[in-house]
Structure formats: C-alpha cells, structure tokens
Amino acid sequence: MQKNQIVKILLLVLVCGFGACKDSASSTKTFSIACSDDDKPLSYQENGELKGFGIELAKLLNDTNNNLQTVINTINTHQESLLQGLESKKFDVIITQIPPTKQLQDQFIISAHPYLFLTLQILVPESSPIHTLQDLNQKSIATLIATPQSKALQEWNAKEGNIIDIHYYRDNATLFEALQNGAIDGVVGDAAMISDYIQNLALRSVGESIAKEPLYLIYKDKDVALVVDKALEEIIDSGALRDLSLRVFGVDKTQ
C-alpha cells in the first residue's frame, strides 16, 4: 500500500466547561486533528503548502477561542490508518470522508453536527449515451471504497433493483483513469468536490441527485468531543463555516 502523508494539526486547548477554568499550564491539553494530504479539495498539499477545506476548518475551529493555538506538522502513514491512529489515540480528531456507519459509531464518536454535506450524482463523459437514470440499466458505475459515495450508491442501487454493476477503487486517480479508458461507464460523486476532474474530462451529471450524505468529525474521547463540538457549533451558528464553504467550493455545502 502506498504511503500518504497525514496532516497533523495540534490544537493546544484550554479546556473549559467542565467546572472552573484554570489559567495554568495544568489546564492546557493538546488535541491533534488529522486529515489526508491527498484528498483534494478537502485536504492536500500544493507546492509544499497545506490547503483545502479541512485545513481551513481546523484553523477556523482554532480561531473560535483565544485559548486555542494551532501548530501544523506532517507525518507519514497509510490512508487507512486514520481510524487506527484515532483508536490508538495518536490522533484526537479526524477530518475525513469516512461514512458514519453503525460499526463506526459503536467504536468512535461522531460530531454532534455534520461539517459538510455531499450532494451525490452519477457523472458520465459528455459523449456517453447515458442521459437519464433509466439509461443506467446494466451499466458499470464506479465509486471509492468505504466512502459516503459507495454507501449512497449501494443503497440507491438496491432501491432500484440492482440495475447497475458497481466497481470499487481506492483513489480518484485510478477511478477517473478507468473512466477515461472506457473500463467503466460512469462514477458517483459530488460535483463541487471533483470539479477538476469534471472540467478536465468533460463530465456531465445524469438526472437528479441520488443522495445527500453528511460528513462528520470523528473522535475517540468524550472530553475531546465536547470541546471540539462546541467550537464547531459556534462556527455553524456564526455563519463562518458557510462562508468557508462558499470560499472553497463556490456553494454552501453546510446544509
């Protein structure tokens, strides 16, 4: 498995709300937020600079409280190690597109509010004979494995009588290469999240959205969840999260 870098954002947090806050070193706790650096536009590196919605979200959570200070580092690990790192308490929070399955919620804590919503559609090349969802019968549609996209596509396909053949890929580069080479007929995705591929490969959507899937922050520790959830709620209520979405995606993807 190819190794990817993980962006590790250390939040030095003065923990309040669990009794009196003490202005001392003993009341300061270090939280680490991790997200992949190859998940554009959520989080990625460009010319050595960390960019993306997830990076800006971490900074925004930091800015909600004067006692939050952010230090950004990078470490090497597998993409699949995000949850393992959370389980072992290597990370305190992960910003990711991992779907909140029952199994996940039995093991971890998801944020009280989503930080983003994916509006998922079937996308095909402009030259494709597929123009409606009814045209998808016996076609091959691809998705990334273990993502909200795969969950939504599986559920939609089951509801429609399993009319499509679902193909699974581990990364966008391989998935869209397969589409370009004609190995698959289409993909499922959120247009704002894969706008570069849509433009470069001249893709178009088919029919209406098949699902709207929420994305959550994921925690292991209840105290961490309480502190970060409070900050998340503040940036939702203030409109700061909406403004960030408009700046990064050009649309409000927070509701």
Q: Which architecture of the largest domain would the CATH scheme give at its second level?
A: 3-Layer(aba) Sandwich
Cα shape? globular
β-strand percent reads 25-35%
* H and E string: EEEEEHEHEHEEEHEHEHEEHH
Spans of at least 5 consecutive residues whose pLDDT stays below 50 are: 12-28, 67-78
CATH homologous superfamily identity of the largest domain: Periplasmic binding protein-like II
Keywords: Signal
Domain Solute-binding protein family 3/N-terminal: 30-252
Organism: Helicobacter fennelliae MRY12-0050
Protein name: Amino acid ABC transporter, periplasmic amino acid-binding protein
Summarize the structure.
The chain is built from eight helices and 14 strands. By secondary structure, the chain is an alpha+beta fold. The chain is globular.
Explain what you see.
With 255 residues, the chain is an alpha+beta fold. The protein has two domains: 28-115 and 215-247, D-Maltodextrin-Binding Protein, domain 2 (3-Layer(aba) Sandwich), CATH 3.40.190; 116-210, Periplasmic binding protein-like II (D-Maltodextrin-Binding Protein, domain 2, 3-Layer(aba) Sandwich), CATH 3.40.190. The protein has helices at residues 53-63, 81-87, 102-107, 148-159, 172-180, 195-201, 222-237, 240-249; strands at residues 4-14, 28-36, 38-39, 43-46, 49-51, 69-77, 93-95, 109-110, 116-125, 140-144, 165-169, 186-190, 203-215, 217-219. The chain has a six-stranded mixed sheet with strand order 6-1-2-7-14-8, sandwiched between helices. Strand 10 (140-144), helix 4 (148-159) and strand 11 form a beta-alpha-beta unit. The longest helix has 16 residues, at 222-237. It starts with a strand and ends in a 6-residue tail after the last helix. 37% of the residues are buried.
